[in-house]
């Protein structure tokens, strides 16, 4: 489904795997460069862009806590992984002449500015791309929640969630070939159908603040720019 409202400011949520390309883990510079070029094309349309990246390609706090590591420690390591991804994407964006700032909820002043909402908004108004690293700065919250929180704080028009599938399905389309794809859904339908769009905290924040969510395949060459150009791509929850 296409999004009718003109987009002036977006929050792009990328999974950490979006930077790993065909690798099982880590950062693939070639694929990270391709993602940066897609973002540059959107930026050229005078759309202000905030970005949140997960850290799952480097470290997953929840999975290691299941194996015995302290959950809080695991989550902080995961937050540090998001800063690594943020700096890697910043590097590729700046190679393509996109002025970019990394702002972190964790204090890592050698790599990133501390996150201050007013300063982030000012960067966006000056047409700088802002990458928000370090999650929320607190354990027990996912990067989905961090993305939605930052989206609300900067008054984004929409959260665009780039995943490995081309929208929201009735079931896992990788495991179930008969899964039905939805073009659009309401918040209530997502809850009633128990669809896994985001974790419940993040989704509830979107619902309470009337912030639309678009889900699309970030690894598809045309999906992100196509969505911005109002083509019927992905799934919209509103």
Task: Tell me what you see in this structure.
It is a single chain. This protein is α/β, with parallel strands linked by helices and 238 residues long. Helix content is 37%, strand content 18%. Strands 4-3-5-2-1-6-10-11-9 form a 9-stranded mixed sheet, sandwiched between helices. It has a two-stranded antiparallel ribbon with strand order 7-8. Helix 5 (143-153) packs parallel to helix 7. The termini are close together.
The fraction of residues in strands falls at 15-25%
What Rg is obtained from the alpha carbons, in whole angstroms? Answer: 17 Å
CATH-scheme architecture = 3-Layer(aba) Sandwich
Dominant shape: globular
Placed side by side, the strands forming the largest sheet appear as 4-3-5-2-1-6-10-11-9
Mean pLDDT: 89
Total helical elements: 8
Low-confidence stretches: none
Kindly give the count of domains. Answer: 1
Binned, the helix content reads: 25-40%
Number of β-strand runs: 11
The topology string of helices and strands comes to EHEHHEEHEHEEEEHHEHE
Intertermini distance: 11 Å
CATH fourth-tier homologous superfamily = Acetylglutamate kinase-like
Structural class of the secondary structure composition?
A: alpha/beta
CATH class wording? Alpha Beta
Main beta sheet strand tally, sense and closure: 9 strands, mixed
The name CATH uses for the topology is Carbamate kinase
